[in-house]
Design goal:
Blueprint: H1 3-15, H2 21-31, H3 39-66, E1 69-72, E2 74-78, E3 81-86, E4 90-92, E5 98-99, E6 102-104, E7 107-111, H4 136-150, H5 155-168, E8 179-183, H6 190-198, E9 204-208, H7 213-223, E10 226-230, H8 240-249, E11 257-260, E12 268-271, E13 277-281, H9 288-292, E14 294-298, H10 313-333, H11 339-342, H12 353-363, H13 370-392, H14 395-408, H15 416-426, H16 434-443, E15 448-453, E16 456-461, H17 465-474, H18 480-488, H19 507-514, H20 532-543, E17 549-550, H21 551-557, H22 564-577, E18 580-584, E19 587-590
Parallel strand pairs: 1-7, 8-13, 8-14, 9-10, 10-13
Antiparallel strand pairs: 2-3, 3-4, 4-5, 6-7, 11-12, 15-16, 17-19, 18-19
Helix pairs in contact: 1-3, 2-3, 4-5, 4-10, 15-16
C-alpha cells in the first residue's frame, strides 16, 4: 500500500476522534483485510498517528495561550456578585466559600501574587476569612477600643479614625474620599497611629515617604487598597511635583494621570490614583490644595502607662480579627451605598461647604441609622467650632477678628490702613503694612471698593455674602445680629450710601460724585482725582527731609493705598497744574 493511502486512512480516523495508534491500526485492518500485516506497514501507521497527535497538541496549547489569565485582588462579576482576595492566594465570595479561580464571561481571574505577600515581610495586608461583627455600631465601637488601646489621642481624632476605617472598605462605591494625616514632631506617636489605624483599613499598602511615584502607581493599580505613607514630608527633588500630583488627584474618582510610555513614547499610559491614604508628616504641606484634602490631627506625646512601647504579638492577632470583620462588612454594605443618594443627606446649615464635602462620605455609612446620624451631626457641629477656633488664631484669623470688632463698633469705613492701626493699638511692637493686609483680604476673597467717607477716601471693604461667609469661617461664636445687619447692607460699600457722601446732601444727587462705583480710571486732567490732596500733603512732608523725593519713597509713604498707576496719574496732573516739579526722572518737588 502506498504511503499516501496509509496517511489518508489515518487522517480519516483522526477526524472521527480516534487517536490511539493500536486502535487505529486494528480499525484499518478490519476495513482493509487485504493489507499486508507486517512490521513495515505497522511502523508507517504508527508514525502518521504520532505526527497527527503532535499537531493536535500544538493546537490545544495555542488555544490555552489565547485564554488570558487576569491577576486581580477583587472581582465584580455583576448582579451583586463580588469576590475578594484573601490570604492563601484564594478568592472568597459572599457565602464565605473559597475559590482558586473565578471565570466571568469567559474571562479567567486568578489572585494576585508577588513579593509583597511574603509571610513575615508583608507589604500588603489581607484578611483571612469572614468573622461576625454584629452591627455597624458594634463594629465601630470595636475599632475605637482597638485604636484607644494602642494609641493615645483626643476624642475627635479617635472618632474620625474609627469612622474612616470602615469607609476605606467601601471607598470604591464613593466618588471622593479625603485623607487622614497625623502631624507632629518625632517621638509624638505618628507611626503608632499609622499602625493602629492603617493596618485595619482596606488592603493596607505599607509604604514610606521614600517610595517613588512609579512604585506607588503600580501598587495602587495592582491592589487598589489604602496607601500608608509614613514620614511623608516631600523633599525638594524631581519627584516632588509628581508626588504632589499623585496625592492631589487621588482624592476623587476618574482624575486620571496619563503619560508617555518610556519604552514606546507613542503609547499613552493611563493611571487612576483614587484610593484612601493615611499620611504622617512633621510639617504642613506647602501645597494648599493637598493640605485641604487632609483631615489632620496634631500628634502629642502620651502620658499613659497602659500603652505598650513595643507592639506585642496580640496586637497583630487583634488587627487580623478586625480585618476579618471588616471584610464581612464590605460584602454586606458594598451594594447598599449609592453615591447619588449621598447628596441628599442633610448635615445642617452651620457646617461649611468644604467640611460637608469631606464628611458626606462618612455620613453615607449611617444614612439608614437615624440615631447614629444624629450623633454624627452633633459631633460635626462641635468639630466645626474647633476648626473655627484654630483658624481664628492664624494671621488671617487675626485680620478677620479685627474686621469683626470694627463692624461691632459700627465702623462702616474699614480700610487696610485702619486695620493696621487697630492691630498696632493692640500690639505696638507688631510690625505690619497695609499692603500686606490688603493682600490677605484679597486672598480671602473679600472685596474692596474705592469710595469717600466724609473727607476721607480709600479702598473700603464691601459688605456682601463673601464677607459673611469669611466671618463665619474665622470668628468663633459670631453674633447672629451682626450677620443679619450685614445681609441688609449686602453689595453696598460698607453701609448706607448717605454716610459717605460727605456733604449730607441728597443721596441720589451725590452718589455719582461721592463714590466711583465702576472700574473705569479717572481722567488724568480731572481735579477730582482720588487721593490728590493726600498725595500732595505726603510729598510736602517728605520734601522736608528728602528733596527731590524719589517716586518709590512717596509710594511707600502712602502705604500702597494708592496704586502705582493712580499715583503716576496724580503726579502728572499736579505737574500740569504747576503744584509739583520733576527736576529729574521720577524725582519730585512741591512748588
Amino acid at each position: 500500500m502506498k504511503i499516501s493511502e496509509i496517511k489518508k486512512l489515518v487522517n480519516e480516523r483522526f477526524d472521527v476522534g480516534m487517536n490511539d495508534p493500536v486502535n487505529i491500526y486494528k480499525d484499518i485492518l478490519i476495513e482493509h483485510p487485504k493489507i499486508e500485516r507486517n512490521d513495515k506497514v505497522m511502523s508507517k501507521i504508527l508514525n502518521f498517528v504520532k505526527i497527527q497527535n503532535e499537531k493536535k497538541d500544538k493546537k490545544q496549547n495555542k488555544r490555552k495561550e489565547k485564554v488570558m489569565i487576569n491577576r486581580v485582588s477583587f472581582v465584580d462579576a455583576g448582579d451583586g456578585e463580588i469576590y475578594e482576595q484573601v490570604r492563601g492566594l484564594q478568592f472568597i465570595d459572599i457565602n464565605g466559600d473559597m475559590f482558586d479561580e473565578i471565570v466571568v464571561h469567559e474571562e479567567i481571574y486568578h489572585p494576585n501574587t508577588g513579593e509583597e505577600l511574603k509571610e513575615g515581610k508583608e507589604v500588603v495586608l489581607l484578611s483571612e476569612k469572614f468573622e461576625d461583627y454584629g452591627d455597624i455600631t458594634t463594629l465601630i465601637e470595636d475599632i475605637k477600643t482597638f485604636i484607644n488601646k494602642y494609641y493615645d489621642c483626643d476624642n475627635a481624632t479617635l472618632v474620625f479614625s474609627s469612622w474612616y476605617v470602615p469607609l476605606t472598605w467601601v471607598f470604591d462605591r464613593l466618588n471622593t474620599i479625603n485623607y487622614l494625616r497625623s502631624l507632629g514632631d518625632h517621638g509624638t506617636g505618628k507611626s503608632r497611629w499609622m499602625d493602629a489605624v492603617g493596618r485595619i483599613c482596606y488592603k493596607p499598602i505599607i509604604g514610606s515617604g521614600a517610595g517613588t511615584v512609579a512604585s506607588l502607581k503600580r501598587m495602587v493599580k495592582k491592589w487598589g487598597g489604602t496607601v500608608l505613607t509614613d514620614e511623608g514630608d516631600f523633599k525638594d527633588d524631581d519627584e516632588k511635583s509628581a508626588l504632589v500630583k499623585f496625592y492631589n488627584l487621588g482624592f476623587e474618582k476618574n482624575r486620571t494621570i496619563y503619560q508617555c510610555d518610556k519604552i514606546n513614547p507613542d503609547k499613552i499610559v493611563f493611571f487612576d490614583p483614587y484610593c484612601p491614604k493615611l499620611i504622617t508628616t512633621r510639617k504642613p504641606f506647602k501645597d494648599q490644595a493637598l493640605e485641604s484634602r487632609c483631615l489632620t490631627h496634631i500628634a502629642k506625646m502620651t502620658t499613659r502607662k497602659d500603652i505598650p512601647i513595643l507592639l506585642p504579638k496580640k496586637f497583630f492577632e487583634e488587627q487580623m480579627v478586625l480585618r476579618n470583620k471588616l471584610l464581612k462588612f464590605r460584602f454586606d454594605y458594598y451594594h447598599k451605598i449609592d453615591s447619588d443618594k449621598i447628596l441628599d443627606i442633610d448635615l445642617g446649615e452651620n457646617i461649611e461647604p468644604r467640611l460637608k464635602q469631606a464628611m458626606l462620605s462618612y455620613a453615607s455609612l449611617f444614612a439608614n441609622f437615624p440615631e447614629i446620624l444624629k450623633e454624627f451631626k452633633e459631633f460635626l457641629e462641635e468639630y466645626q467650632k474647633e476648626l473655627t477656633e484654630t483658624r481664628s488664631m492664624s494671621f488671617d484669623g487675626t485680620i478677620i477678628k479685627v474686621v469683626y470688632e470694627m463692624i461691632k463698633n459700627n465702623d462702616e469705613f474699614i480700610t487696610s490702613g485702619k486695620i493696621v492701626e487697630y492691630i498696632k493699638n493692640l500690639s505696638p511692637d507688631f510690625k505690619i503694612r497695609s499692603c500686606t493686609i490688603g493682600g490677605h483680604l484679597k486672598t480671602l476673597g473679600i472685596k474692596t471698593k474705592d469710595r469717600r467717607f466724609g473727607s476721607k477716601r480709600g479702598n473700603a471693604i464691601v459688605f456682601n455674602e463673601t464677607l459673611r461667609m469669611v466671618l463665619k469661617k474665622y470668628v468663633p461664636n459670631i453674633e447672629k445680629e451682626i450677620l443679619e445687619s450685614l445681609e441688609k447692607m449686602e453689595n453696598l460699600p460698607c453701609g448706607p450710601l448717605k454716610k459717605f457722601t460727605g456733604d449730607g446732601g441728597d443721596d441720589n444727587n451725590n452718589k455719582n460724585t461721592a463714590v466711583r462705583m465702576d472700574n473705569s480710571p479717572a481722567s488724568p486732567s480731572s481735579p477730582q482725582l482720588p487721593f490728590t490732596e493726600f498725595a500732595l500733603k505726603e510729598l510736602k512732608t517728605l520734601n522736608e527731609h528728602i528733596k527731590p523725593c524719589p517716586f518709590n519713597d512717596l509710594y511707600n509713604e502712602v502705604d500702597h493705598e494708592i496704586s502705582k498707576e493712580e499715583l503716576i496719574k496724580i503726579l502728572n496732573y499736579l505737574k500740569k497744574e504747576g503744584s509739583v516739579f520733576e527736576p529729574k526722572q521720577r524725582m519730585y518737588v512741591v512748588a
